[in-house]
């Protein structure tokens, strides 16, 4: 690192001594002194007056930095700012006439005219010139430069060429002598990248040169980024899956190099031409194709020999995305032929199977139009040889979910029993000794040993027929039908067939016998046993119907008749001698009977009714049932002569649409009542209302209720008056000018508008209070509790 220091002579010392004699003519008015910021900043572009004179409040000159990057004429301490010169500033092969004599033709160049991609440093002494009076001159003394290279400073001459700005040199350190107030920019040239520190002090000189005032000593820091000498592409180091996304990043070397322009190129192989890739960013994301090559080019600065930006090209990188080996699957060799009953083992062998892959086996017999997928998914499938499998073709696929990765060749199964009949035999099971007319005959065809065939045909030959008749549509292993007189002595045959209908094996016939006995049913008595003395809601009542004597019949139905029912109703699903019934509160006092039927569904016997004694929780009687009829119309005449009372209202004044709570007393909990509003009779809620456990219920005042005095009356389910109270209905709440104002933007107006805004806010708060009151009433109505084993909607009083 080179350190250049320019020493100050005796004349400077004399001027320093007399600096105090240069007294300003006037002081700044309070508040006129600019704010000088000290927070750290890094400027990479923009207009910057690096050496900027200002006058402090006490009239003394001060050297600061002024910038238009973060604002307009923002003043900052020089020490808080890093002036960053990008790699873009590098210039090569600069013509000799374009730089000062002795300056190299390669340097980091900040031009006299603004380049918006770079910083544009200059200086400004106009503030002190206007403050200290006409004829005032200034000096900017760069007393030392510490950095890796040299800094040149120059401007253009009137007729071209270079012109010196420093008093006795082309490069810093040195002095910039300003004979008048001016805002100046210049050419800057840095010979090496790195960090440069400038020590600078300004001086303000009187017109006659006899007086001098020094500014503070300030430190300026320029950081020059290196030009890139190489580009390294990162992100292609690893092997990836074909088609995966790969992000490639072009890194400029050495670190800190930052040419602004990026170009990307690709080609499929060494023998192909490079093609430009869309995109001009440091990174690109591509789809991985094995062997694809990429290279990057960064460009910036200026080569004056070619009048084009400098370009640095990376070495190519190659994407590594080899295709996965193609999976394959084969079936192991089968035996030359198999005999019925011997095992057939199908074995799959997979190559290059991905993790998670599975097997899908199919088998297609000669009678099938398409292969059938087997349930087995492992590498081995075991079958039992039978003649139905002769000529069947087995295949296996290697699958990943629903995707088929590979398929095997076909493997044909050869079963040869050398002329023997199939081993499979078929028998019909489920035949009763005899049936009664109307009974259901349920038959099952059983194959032993089991077969791969699943299709059956059923035949019936009635007495007098010469051949069995096919039952159309019956192709399962079971066959059910009703026993009728025409089937007496009928023969039933089952046949196991191939899917194409070809018969494989046939059962021996079975005969259907009918015997209705023609005997009178045995008289018996039904007695219901198991009745408990008392049940709680939720208990299971287990009752058993006992025959005396036994008849052999077992066809039962159970019936129940609850309080208020006109007749018995069947208990669904209760078809045996034992009834299991879950007790509810409505079952209190219910009567239950059992009936026994014969096979013709005629009643053989009926039990005496038994009554359920149900204990209601809390010792209470069962809850009243909601009246079947709507509340009877009422008029205000029902209140004549009856003093107010008997009920309490949560609010005696309410607005239309408001919810209020009516208290009628806890002794009426669970009862059904009707609430009416007079003078024009209105049934509140439009139906019967339920009193909650606290003896209260809630009603909504109709939205069209007329303002004024009303009477709210409550009537019991039997029509008797419970009580009444006077209710004052207030006028409806409507929005006004205040409400509109509360939503207007003037709510955020300055202080002088506060009076008008306050009026608007009062209206808004009143409306909000009403909304909260209505919301509270709605929440009250939503309360629930469980009473007597049944869910009931209640409304709690406020």
UniProtKB/TrEMBL annotation:
Region (Disordered): 617-645
rRNA processing listed as a keyword: no
Signal peptide limits: 1-29
Name of the protein: Surface-anchored protein
NCBIfam families assigned: choice_anch_M (NF038134), P_ac_wall_RPT (TIGR03769)
Top-rank taxon, per record: Bacteria
Top-level taxonomy: Bacteria, Bacillati, Actinomycetota, Actinomycetes, Micrococcales
Keyword hit for Repressor: no
Transmembrane segments: 762-783
InterPro entries in the record: Surface-anchored_actinobac (IPR022435)
Keyword terms of this UniProt record: Membrane, Signal, Transmembrane, Transmembrane helix
